């Protein structure tokens, strides 16, 4: 699988120089998975802002294992619910074109998603270095 061409930066998280720098300098071959998680945590925190009631967190343990990242919407009703809606499986940079790694990550993500018992919609994503699905 070849990586897609770069999209226009305007209106995306790439218009922020800190995120662009992190992607170019931290998502490089040989860096650990934690760098992918760190960069995507920053991206998700920018997209799903705390001032709008969202929180993104790392390494959530659950029945199916350990999800690398999750994002939740905090709903301030009488119960103060935390509605997790996005789970992200991260992989170390350098193997973005490795179809076997994508398949392995998809299996891991499926196990994570199956272990949740959400009352709301739940989405999953794979962050494989500089690429995502």
Describe this structure in words.
Helices cover 32% and strands 29% of the residues. By secondary structure, the chain is an alpha+beta fold. The protein has one domain (13-132). Helix 1 (17-26) packs antiparallel against helix 2 (33-47). The protein is globular and about 45 Å long.
The poorly predicted ranges are none
Order of helices and strands: HHEEEHEE
How would you sum up the major sheet? 5 strands, mixed
| Number of discrete domains | 1
Rounded to the nearest angstrom, the distance between the terminal CA atoms is: 12 Å
Protein name: Type I restriction enzyme R protein N-terminal domain-containing protein
Q: What topology does this entry show?
A:
Blueprint lengths: L16 H10 L6 H15 L6 E9 L2 E11 L5 E11 L7 H17 L7 E6 L2 E2 L1
Parallel strand pairs: 3-4
Antiparallel strand pairs: 1-2, 2-3, 4-5
For this entry, give a set of tags:
single chain, 133 residues, alpha+beta, 5-stranded mixed β-sheet, 5 strands
Can you give me a brief rundown of this structure?
With 133 residues, the chain is an alpha+beta fold. It contains 3 helices and 5 strands. It has one domain.
């Amino acid at each position: 699988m070849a990586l897609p061409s770069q999209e226009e930066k305007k209106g995306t998280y790439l218009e922020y120089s800190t995120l662009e720098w992190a992607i170019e300098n931290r998502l490089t071959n040989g860096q650990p998975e934690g760098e992918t998680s760190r960069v995507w945590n920053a991206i998700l925190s920018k997209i799903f802002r705390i001032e709008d009631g969202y929180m993104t967190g790392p390494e959530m343990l659950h029945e199916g294992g350990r999800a690398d990242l999750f994002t939740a919407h905090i709903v301030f009703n009488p119960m103060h619910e935390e509605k997790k809606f996005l789970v992200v499986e991260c992989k170390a940079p350098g193997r973005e074109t490795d179809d076997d790694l994508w398949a392995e990550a998809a299996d891991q993500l499926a196990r994570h998603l199956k272990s949740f018992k959400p009352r709301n919609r739940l989405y999953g994503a794979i962050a494989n270095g500089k690429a995502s699905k």
